[in-house]
Fold this sequence. Notes:
The complex is a heterotrimer of chains A (578), B (395) and C (289).
Chain A: H1 3-26, H2 29-54, H3 62-78, H4 84-107, H5 112-132, H6 153-176, H7 178-188, H8 190-195, H9 200-226, H10 236-249, H11 254-274, H12 280-295, H13 299-314, E1 345-354, E2 357-367, E3 372-376, H14 383-391, E4 398-403, E5 406-407, H15 413-419, E6 421-423, H16 436-443, H17 449-459, H18 473-486, E7 491-495, H19 503-520, E8 523-527, H20 531-537, E9 540-545, E10 548-553, H21 555-560, H22 562-577
Parallel strand pairs in A: 3-8, 3-9, 6-7, 7-8
Antiparallel strand pairs in A: 1-2, 1-4, 4-5, 9-10
Helix pairs in contact in A: 1-6, 2-6, 2-9, 2-10, 2-11, 3-4, 3-5, 3-9, 4-9, 6-7, 6-9, 7-9, 7-16, 10-11, 10-12, 16-18, 17-18, 19-20
Chain B: H1 2-23, E1 30-31, E2 36-43, H2 53-67, E3 75-82, H3 87-100, E4 105-107, H4 114-125, E5 129-130, H5 151-165, E6 172-177, H6 183-197, E7 203-208, H7 215-223, E8 228-231, H8 235-247, E9 254-257, H9 264-269, E10 277-280, H10 295-304, H11 310-327, E11 331-332, H12 335-344, E12 370-371, E13 373-377, E14 380-383, E15 389-390
Parallel strand pairs in B: 1-11, 2-3, 2-4, 4-5, 6-7, 6-8, 8-9, 9-10
Antiparallel strand pairs in B: 10-13, 12-15, 13-14
Chain C: H1 2-10, H2 12-32, H3 39-55, H4 60-85, H5 91-113, E1 128-132, E2 135-138, H6 139-161, H7 163-173, H8 175-180, H9 185-207, H10 215-219, H11 222-231, H12 237-254, H13 267-279
Antiparallel strand pairs in C: 1-2
Helix pairs in contact in C: 1-12, 2-6, 2-7, 2-9, 2-11, 2-12, 3-4, 3-9, 4-9, 6-7, 6-12, 11-12, 11-13
Amino acid sequence: MKRADLTSCLALVVVTAVAGLAVYGLLPSYWVFLATAVVITAISLQGLGLVTGRAGMIALCQMSFAGVGAWTVGWLNVIEAPGGLPVWVVLGGLAAVPFGVAIGLPALRLRGINLAIVTLAFAAAFDVILATITFPGQTSFLSVARPELFDSDEGYFVFALLFYLAVALGLSILSRSRLGSAFLAIRHSERAAAALGVSIPLTKLSAFAISAFIAGLSGGLLAGYLGTLVSENFSMMQSLALFAVATMAGAQLAEGAIIGGMLVTLFPELLRRLGLPQDVGNVLFALGAVQALASGETMAETLRRNLASLTARLGLPRFAPSAPVGTVLPPPRNRRDPAAAGPTLVIDRLGVRYGQVVALSNVSLSVPAGTVVGLIGPNGAGKSTFIDAVTGFLPAYEGSVRLEGRPLEGLPAHERARLGVRRTWQTTRIPPDLSVGAYLDLAAPGLSPEESAAVLTWIGCPSPETLVQAVDAGTRRLLDVAGVVAARPAVVLLDEPAAGQSYDQALRLARRIAEIPKLFGSSVLLVEHDMDLVRGACSQITVCDFGQVIASGPPLRVLEEPVVKKAYLGIALEEDAA
Amino acid sequence: MKSISMLLGGVALACLAGLSATTAAEAAGPTCKDGVIRLGAVSTITGPADFSEVPEAAAAVFDAVNAKGGLNGCKIEYTISDDKADPAVAAQAARDLIDNKEVVALVGSGSLLDCAVNATTYKRKGVLSVQGLGVDAACFNAPSVAPVNVGPYTLSTAMAYYATNQLKAEKVCGFFIIIGGTQEAYKGAIETWEKISGKKIHLLDMTLPFQGDLTPYVIKARDAGCDAVIQNAVEPGVVQWVKTADAQKITGINWLFLAPGYTQEVAKALADSTQPVYVGTEWEPFTETGSAANKDWIATMTAAGKPLTAFSQGGYLAATVMLDVLSGINGEVTRESVTEALQKMQPKSYELAGTPYVFGEGDRHAPMQATKVMKLDKGKWTVETPDWVVLPSAN
Amino acid sequence: MNALLTSAVAGLTAAGAYALLGVCAVFTFRLVAVVNFTGAAIGTAGTFSMIGFISLGVPLWPAVVLGILVGTLAGALIGLVMTQWFSEATATTKAAVTAALLVGIVALGLRLTGGQSPKEFPTLFPGSAFRLAGVEVTVASVLTVVLALVFTLLADAFLNRTRTGLHLRALSERPMAAELLGVRVRILALLVWAVTGAFTTFALMIIAPQRSPDFMSLSLLVVPALAAALVGAFRSFPLALAGGLTIGIVEGMSSAIDGISQYRGILPFFVILAVLLWSQRGARWDEAR
């Protein structure tokens, strides 16, 4: 674990302990009872926050998962299973996981929107089932047995708080892990995540499974809290309301989940004290959620921003982890078989058509090991389509793509990325809420902090702890390049990396790109408009027009060919003149 | 106004006098610390159903007593808490009443899930609830709750009993909506009827959906040749069922519903229907405004400006029961003394109900075992059984 | 077998309703790119206001017109929220907004309509059309099926044959691009919302007397409706129509089979699962992501 992780985990433990002690020691029993409800709801909200807030999918069946956990605990209580409530609650969480996976499975390849419908339909279906089965032990008045130590209101509060802390710690560690970054990445752009070698189905599924597990835990805790439960605890409207609250409060953050829990629990209390009708709560949650979606900022995020500006105004020292310094780049990639000196990437008679429109036809190209090959051509020549086809983002193409002799046909995008075909995008697709370091970790797993820092310094990116959203667009493009090369794949396909760069920056980038084969051991296919950059970086270029190769060879010779000048440079010259 | 309050005063005094006559020899009746007796109710007021009329009616009864100087000088402080039909809110509400409001008992609650959620809490905290309107199965199956209403399960038995005894039905069918663990209770209700009548149920369908199209079920009843169908839908479901039967042009089946169907709204909504529709009541039919049994209840409600509905009968009756029990306590009214008084009480008859009310010490309580059957006639409810239909097992 | 046929025919009432609402959902999605969870709730609001007008003494048909007007306004109001704040948002965000709004609308609706206490829902088209397999098929259920069919044909023709339809499709795919084309995006989008509001209101008015007429139950008809729309992959009107009819009829049939009938409410879920597993065999990438 890195030091930053340790510090934030410690902070979480201390804050929870202090708050817990305050509730435990200072509040009367009734308020401790309420606080327990806050904590249990917050646990459930954290799970929901993982799916909706972090991974950007709509899940409308969180309470159904909780119901699975609760019923499991109830049943274990009736059969007097060994281990007592702590074990039962965990088992309840585990019991919810298969449901989470089952819901996630058909929705894996879907646009997120359909997932919302699947989950809502599941919630409706679960309502029907739950309505027909009694909570185990209810008819015989057997309430769920609490451990002796935690039997009182205060005791059970501590019990629930321990679970909350465990979940919060787990999620905090998860959010800093590669999987956590992958969640953010698929929310931002599924294509870009796949291009980084992230398996979209597996990532979505794990988000769902973890979320269901946490919901199951909270359901089990609820069973111990109330002793017995009714189906209304887990109805579809409860799930919908919880979704609204999660959206409003920002449940992906630990404090957001607590805020949400307080809204759910203390709002009815407030309304009761004010003598207002209870249903006002749901209306306000709905409005709050819409407001949060419209402003793009949840309550927890607002709180963080205000706290940050407050610390800034008061001149308090801000907590800043010491940035690692590194000058040694990671070792370059080793070819698996140094004896095989064939080209890294061979594309043979590639063809792509969209309906009647031929986007590429008969394009053959090879990228020899240790070289930078340029692919140029006017707008609409099919360059991006070419990259899409090679990296596996098109449903179908003709011809073949071989990486170090191995055909890639039939492999999905993330598999190709893992095998060593990496790409960047014309418009940057880096999740803005990641830090620069976390992004590099996501793009190139296994780098040491020092190596990451060295790669960033090499290309001219800010230090690892900087947030991507604080980085200007030009530098983000560099980060894009840094990400793919740091992974040291067999071949890197760069799609117009110099777009939006100044002339000086572009020249500097050209030098860096030319260094890639030597420093990182990767071959490069560079798609670019900027002729200076192409001349500066490439040892070979191929020119495309209207989906076909019209010239190929060393840059100086190819660029002098009349057919190239006519098709391509003519336009470029006009552009320069304008 | 004056005459009404005089009347009320008279009623209250008569009540007190009747009670104190038996206890006068021993002591001066109930006493209270700081001059108040705290009572509460957990009811569904907002959300999918509104049972607020139940505790409101109880409140009217207590207000009337307070206006007369209270019970033996003790003011009654009555708190109504809404549970939104949300279990979490219901649990909160109960804890608030017990821990913060320090109620000595719960009375006049009417909720979709109060008993199921809170009966355990009541038991643990040593508080008893005289439910004004028991809805869920736990109300009739808990040591800590004894409703003043018959409830859907006993009423199902009673309606089936009525169908065989008075309507001379041969093929009695049951269609039940099963929510939240009521399956056993309804099965039990039908088995009880089978024991009493010696007949077998012709068709028992416990799969009726809470919402959705009912046509397939109505058709099923027709095709099975049922001549009486017992159904447990709440208000909208009753209307929907009868309208579906009308749409299918079904004739020759008596439709028997439970107390939730017995409202003016249902009668109005079904004014055009020619289907024979019967409902069983929880208490003396509230639409019979001229009946002697309803007189006190009507007077109290009218004085308080509350509506005259079946729900308000429940609240009124629960409050009356509670007042009687409280009056019988000698010494300080505490949670313990009220609980003891309820558990030790003798069965007491009330005109509003067909059987006497008693709380007692049993593990489950369903003291009310009688109903009156109403028939729908051109948008109005008419009494079919002027005498109570009392289940034989209750005798 | 006969019992199965009988109950299948009996399921026709629900089938028409699901189909009509499903087609409306596809219409909304194709034109304004929103998966609308409030669809049925909008119609329910209109339907309940009709009851309100009737209780105020307005005669039936004027009350119907007023109710549809309220539904239209309610639709436009949601549309206003969507176009005002979320025109540039992703489809997921838009769906999240409508899901959240549904929570509020149901709470408000239950409050204003008094929970489950029944309202007298007038049957707009009383009587039965014909008798099939021993079941009276009501005029209302025939009408919903026909209405769904008509709406399907109209929507298809509108989208593919008219200039406005093409504009609207451009709008849903690229709001910015449509703006550049000089299409008055907001007005058109609001119009779409209003029209779907009117249609769902009318649909719910027809079917309300045959459903459990409380605000929440009617609003949650959106679940089978979206299931139907999903069968059509939110693109095809005829497939959505078929999907809605299938769900309704299968639901009806299942009530004749003991052991399943109790769980027939979970059928939309299984239909969705089956359709998704079948139709999403290949990898798909969200456009523009």
